[in-house]
Amino acid sequence: MVADWEAKAQAKREEIFSSIPKEWILPSVPSKEEQKDVTGDFARQYLSDREVEITETDAVGITAKTTTGEWSAVEVTKAFCHRAAIAHQLLSCLHEIFFDAALASAKEMDNHFEFTKKPLGPLHGLPVSLKDQFHVKGVDTTMGYIGWIGTFEGAQNAKNYRTHESLMVQELRELGAVLYCKTSVPHTLMSGETVNNIIGYTLNPKNRLLTCGGSSGGEGALIGFRGSPIGFGTDIGGSIRIPAAFNGLFGLRPSSGRLPYEGMANSMDGQNTVLSVVGPLATTSASLTLMTKSILSRDPWLHDPLVHEIPWRDSHYDAMKSLLSSGSKLSFGVIRNDGITSPHPPVTRALEFLTSTLASAGHEITPWTPPPHIDAITLTSSIWTFDGGADVHAAFALSGEPPSSQISSVYGTSPSLQASASQIAAINVAKRKWQKAYMEYWNSTSKVSGTGRPVDAVICPVAPFAAARPGTYKSYSYMSVWNFLDYTGVVVPVTTVDKGVDAVDAGFQPIDEADRECQATYDPEIFDGAHVSLQLVGRRLQEEKMLAIAEYVGSVLAEAK
Amino acid sequence: MVADWEAKAQAKREEIFSSIPKEWILPSVPSKEEQKDVTGDFARQYLSDREVEITETDAVGITAKTTTGEWSAVEVTKAFCHRAAIAHQLLSCLHEIFFDAALASAKEMDNHFEFTKKPLGPLHGLPVSLKDQFHVKGVDTTMGYIGWIGTFEGAQNAKNYRTHESLMVQELRELGAVLYCKTSVPHTLMSGETVNNIIGYTLNPKNRLLTCGGSSGGEGALIGFRGSPIGFGTDIGGSIRIPAAFNGLFGLRPSSGRLPYEGMANSMDGQNTVLSVVGPLATTSASLTLMTKSILSRDPWLHDPLVHEIPWRDSHYDAMKSLLSSGSKLSFGVIRNDGITSPHPPVTRALEFLTSTLASAGHEITPWTPPPHIDAITLTSSIWTFDGGADVHAAFALSGEPPSSQISSVYGTSPSLQASASQIAAINVAKRKWQKAYMEYWNSTSKVSGTGRPVDAVICPVAPFAAARPGTYKSYSYMSVWNFLDYTGVVVPVTTVDKGVDAVDAGFQPIDEADRECQATYDPEIFDGAHVSLQLVGRRLQEEKMLAIAEYVGSVLAEAK
User: Fold this and answer.
1) Tell me, what DSSP letter sits at residue A117?
2) N or C: chain B end with fewer CB closer than 10 Å?
3) A412–chain B Cβ distance below 8 A for any pair
4) ipTM topping 0.85
């Protein structure tokens, strides 16, 4: 007999599938073993040349054409809807499909342009995909919970059900963006793999034997497949950067208080020791800049009480750009191993490739010996489980569905003891002290950087692996340390796994048993072809500077390849 | 028999007193009944004309002379040390006296000036007093706790005892300020009256029958007496603004994340739902501007992980200044009664005087009907007691001293149940929703303000009373609502109580029993002469704008008097 929750999940799964126009249904879907990589030519076989041209243009290129009337919003939207529909069939990456509403709004935009000869805003006609935490009128927000289907965040008959829109959604519409789909997440959002009982497991388009990452995994898979040019995820422990990295994308984790989270669904909402932040993932770094600048042009601090009044600072961005264009050298710290989990061979090779490329370009690679990260990671584990899983288990209980193994390994299968006010306060104090120690360490690097300034950015793995094999994502230390510090992180794609080069490290010396297990998941045959990306980390609220550096690093890497 | 804690308190009390040079000891101290007001001519009788001239000059005037060599740092410092010594004898407002260290550092500054002909910084030679939460090398930080005497925040034999300095102290030294005393606080900091078992009860210099306010009460009393030109307090529920108001001063409560709290002692440290903030109190608004701008010139975001990178914005300050100098009108909302506690007659008169003065100057007085404040106040009570008093009772237990009645009325005499992580999270969510509702209300006032902009500032009482009679301070609603919202508040002195004008309101209709009790504490004979001040409230992180408005309002009031 099928459990009630399974029946509900199946109905929702079928409803999603049935939102895809008949003519876009694939005649057959190859197994992941027979077709690991479904990007590039494999994807293109289903598309017209024009659709390929449109969907393989980045957000900057698209808006250059849509804001000048060269491309119509309808044509662009339709091309991305088509490619997104194919993505979902191959990868299981969508939670909500609303192509009709998207085409209607694109049509309105075209009418507006025809009438006024002016774009609606800087994002006129740009399709933007959204992680399934954003509330969009007319559709559900399930966040992967069966109990949230047909409800507002689990509440039955709520008057804001399918009527409320998150602030970011309102702003995107004002800027001219076209919204057309919401993407998959691991239920609870607390995993680097994207799996839930509604849509199952979202695959990595470049290598379907691996995860697309999480928790903004559907975003990563969809944009990686070019079913979207740019989209938004959220990040409390890597959830923007992991899927950006695993799908060969650029992704920005801004500091908290920069972009508006107001009116979004969340897990453990109200835990305010480490805040989840919202940020973009895209195919180019310039797209991230366009998007961040556009959102900030809307003065979000007037509508989100947690956003600081810090407008986009051209002066910061331009200062870094002109430093670089004048041939001045930057200084980069490098974290090759954080002492908690060792990187797999392809990640180590990416680190060496990027640092040697930057050194060849005349930049300094500065020793980086900060306070031990393990202290921050230990505190982070406590923070993520302050409520003993009360919030997530309440959400599971709505339908009776079981948590995935990825989640039960962190939160168990029922709630446990909660932290008290005193315990939380003590952790907040310990956190602030560690942040202070780290910031003073960073200040101190001006003495050794060779530039007279503290280190400009730290180069760091995103994860120990290029992407995780299903069920093996356990180590978040390369990510969550920066959430703990609330620093700015930008992911940059560096290379791909090459089984002919990236051999297993026969002499590997594990730090501990967990490290041994993690390293043992590396298999060149399985990982071959997967994207390998790294993150560039800057200090708190340094979005403009870090985006300028990321653009530069992307261009230097492109030349070096 | 004297209890151990009493003996320790007495020894400390005597040690403080013995730090006053013999020649500054007053021959006799009149009782508060025989000499209510010890400011003005009463204070001047103990001082030379030159000392009066120096100590009755504001921080802007002092630095104009000390940074140009017209006045020596030593002479200025000595004058304020003298007047502070008198203040302590009349008011009991000092916790730590370090005149010798101050004079030594002033001497160094004079030497520096003599040698370089340049000031050390914008605050060269300016005496600055500090609330006893600031750690200063060489002296204790007791925060009024007997158990903290001779310790570092209660820890015995701590290596940072008397060696650690709070970040703000370091920055003040770099800017050229002279530090010379630390001022009294209510133990726990959680009261609008300043009382502890070490120094007793700090009196209001303008009317010693009343409290000087709290928790930065020693600052208020000292600066009100002109024993300091400017000093720093902290504010989690009114603790800068209350003593500023009760002593006829200007005081700034900035939003959190603007000025650095790093390295200071605190109560319930790590409670991060409503953060305590640090800010200046001074005799003029221009002094607050000088100080805020000076501190921000030190880039505190590089040394305090909780400070946002928002430099002093001349553009904001100048925009408001030029709006005003061009004769453009502003729009002010007014809160005459928050529906929780009704103001006493002098406060109501001050509200009418200020609003009619502003209306006469051509400004709009806009109806102000925000979301009911009671919802924020109810949540605030929960926030202040998240830990059930665990932190403050642990501090009392170090010595066995009893809490004052002002404190036991809030925290009892022993710890009670703590809030859980889920309860705290739920309050954080409720808080954010209320902040959102309030901000959208404020946005909406552009439709009725008559300026096309939302209301520029809200005029609001500081407390229901001009100052409280000892033991009667119970209502914090006019204050803590702005901490809850994290808005910018500046206190402006408006008038003084006049028993000939401010009669008891015979037809007073109380809101409830607490309101009746509060109103019943008003007695024109007792309150006569007390300062009556109001606060000007702006939105989050609007320090520059609000300081410009406060300067203007101060000047308009001066003309109207």
Assistant:
1) S
2) N
3) no
4) yes
